[in-house]
Amino acid sequence: MVDDPVSDERDLRAAMLRGLKGRCPACGESRLFRSFLRPVNHCPACGQSWAHQRADDLPAYLVVLVLGHVLVPLVVAANLRLDMPMWVQMTLWPGLALVIAMLMIQPAKGLVIGLQWARRMHGFSGGR
Ligand SMILES: [Zn+2]
Fold first, then answer.
1. What are the structural domain ranges in the chain?
2. What spacing in Å lies between the alpha carbon of 24 and ligand 1's midpoint?
3. What distance in Å separates the CA atoms of residue 30 and residue 32, rounded to the nearest whole number?
4. Which residues contact 77 (CB under 8 A, 6 or more apart)?
5. Ligand 1 centre from 42 Cα, in Å?
6. Does pLDDT of 13 surpass 90?
7. What are the tens digits of pLDDT across the range 60-115?
8. Conformation bin of residue 96: beta by default, left when phi > 0, alpha when psi is -120 to 50
């Protein structure tokens, strides 16, 4: 469902969920990214321009924030219960952090773009 371009209301929750899934926050019909972290210029389904998005560092900050709160307790718990050699830990934790960060960064960017669009931030203040 395309949000009414005349109405001031944009569904924040729907826009952020669509962005999180890598779909157009405005309509959800088409993909949001043309490459890993580069959004499409315009949605082919609804015509919404994504050139205005300015997610900047917020997606990376969110990934670090969530990842730190998940990984640090895991490292502590593993060290309390297991006797892992140092080389295993030096390989496991940074590798796990990298994999999780790579999995989270695109959904986080989509979420932030959905937030910016729904709240008419930066270049999204116009009708479309
Ligand atoms: Zn769209």
1. 12-118
2. 5
3. 7
4. none
5. 8
6. yes
7. 999 999 999 999 999 999 999 999 999 999 999 999 999 999 999 999 999 999 99
8. alpha
- Give the whole-angstrom CA distance, residue 63 versus residue 20: 13
Distance 1 CA to ligand 1 centre (A): 9
Mean pLDDT, residues 3-7 taken together: 51
**Residue position matching structure tokens 């309390």:** 80
What is the pLDDT of the chain when averaged over all its residues? 90
- For CA atoms 10, 113, 120, 50, give the dihedral sign: negative
pLDDT at 127: 54
From the CA of 113, how far away is ligand 1's center (Å)? Answer: 13
Cα(29) to centroid(ligand 1), Å: 6
Centre of ligand 1 to C-alpha 93, Å, is 38
Residue 50 Cα to ligand 1 midpoint, Å, equals 10
